[in-house]
Amino acid sequence: MDIESDRSASIDKRDRTSSLPKVGAETIVTSRTIEFSPASAVAALAAVMLLLLGGITLARAGIDSSLDEPIVSVAGFTATAILGLIEIGFGLIFLIAALARARTAILFVAIIGAVTALVVVFQPTVGELSLGIERGFAVLATIVMAVIVVSALLPSIKRQSVVQRMSDTA
To answer: What is the model's pTM?
Structure first.
């Protein structure tokens, strides 16, 4: 036995119409992508260290006279103003490449740095001692450049989040 009333019919009609999309409603999609590059992080850290070492070397050696004299001690290693300028140059290039997230540039500069440091490891008198560089510093530079090369070969980490919202424009 079915009992029908006017009230139950109006409730049923409201329930059916509330599930229909409203006129003037729109969907807003918000997408956010976060990217982390190990190469950029490692290159930025190396850049700061190179800029710091180069700056201290230039401050101690000075650039007002000959760039290959005097030989100064920085962080336990000997260096000249020429080496300080080279460190600042590599540091600036690494910093720019890291901030631009240019993995290929980071990889290229790190390979050049590693090869150059290896040359100094095997031939520390390169440039007739005008750099004032020690074999220990060249070994350290080779290791740092190798770490940068490996980090540049690692993939970037990407995280994407998408949020959908309904908005009523009416």
So the answer is: 0.72
